[in-house]
């Protein structure tokens, strides 16, 4: 709950609607967001604190709906499709919408479910793109897995979407990844790493007594002063 409030703080108090996963959805979060003029819509887990026990325990037949609305305007809904679906919303009522299917042209769904699915469509599509040739492997440390996911997953999918939008080309995510990697691995001429300098070079000679390097001492003394040069310049038999 604190994570959601912290991440969305700059976007609150503007009448927006926040669609969240069942990991975050709760009645307490809905109340906090209502106080900040923000609606909440999300799937709901069973046995969450402040859940309506009547809705949780009610057994339904396929297509049936049960819903309750609390005084602040928080609606909790349960719908039986292939399995039970529980929703929490501060924006909807227990309304239904006809969504035809192959087997049932008069099939009805709760409006809150329809809106939730529409809002999550892009996220689901993004997950599908990232699932193609995923670089994630078992046994990888969580921080490495996070870095790999952000760079080779999220970043590549975002680049793929931008590329298609700008070029108007039809290309698959697999081909886009292949072209991107080939472009990165292309052989290119790199400038030499060593740059010419007028600074005096070391001409090392083996001496009997350990002394400070004259060249290093003068360089440090010129930059930091005499005391720093005496303290930082190492002694060596090679001068």
Automatic annotation (TrEMBL):
Q: Where is the PiggyBac transposable element-derived protein domain?
A: 2-160
Pfam families, per the entry: DDE_Tnp_1_7
> InterPro entries given for it?
PGBD
Q: Which PANTHER family match?
A: PIGGYBAC TRANSPOSABLE ELEMENT-DERIVED PROTEIN 4 (PTHR46599)
Q: What is this protein called?
A: PiggyBac transposable element-derived protein domain-containing protein
């Amino acid at each position: 709950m604190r994570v959601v409030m912290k991440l969305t703080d700059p976007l609150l108090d503007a009448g927006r609607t926040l669609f969240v996963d069942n990991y975050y959805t709760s009645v307490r979060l809905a109340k906090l967001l209502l106080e900040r003029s923000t609606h909440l819509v999300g799937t709901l887990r069973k046995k969450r604190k402040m859940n309506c026990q009547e809705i949780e325990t009610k057994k339904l037949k396929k297509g049936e709906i049960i819903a309750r609305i609390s005084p602040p305007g928080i609606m909790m809904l349960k719908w039986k499709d292939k399995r039970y679906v529980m929703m929490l919303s501060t924006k909807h009522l227990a309304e239904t919408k006809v969504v035809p299917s192959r087997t049932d042209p008069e099939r009805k769904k709760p409006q809150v479910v329809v809106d939730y699915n529409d809002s999550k469509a892009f996220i689901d599509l993004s997950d599908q793109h990232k699932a193609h040739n995923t670089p994630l492997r078992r046994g990888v440390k969580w921080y490495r897995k996070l870095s790999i996911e952000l760079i080779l997953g999220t970043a590549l999918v975002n680049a793929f979407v931008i590329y298609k939008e700008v070029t108007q080309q039809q290309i698959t995510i697999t081909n886009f990844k292949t072209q991107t990697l080939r472009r990165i691995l292309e052989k290119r001429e790199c400038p030499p790493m060593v740059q010419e300098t007028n600074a005096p070079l070391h001409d090392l000679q083996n001496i009997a007594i350990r002394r400070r390097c004259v060249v290093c001492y003068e360089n440090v003394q010129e930059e930091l002063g005499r005391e720093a040069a005496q303290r930082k310049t190492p002694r060596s038999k090679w001068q």
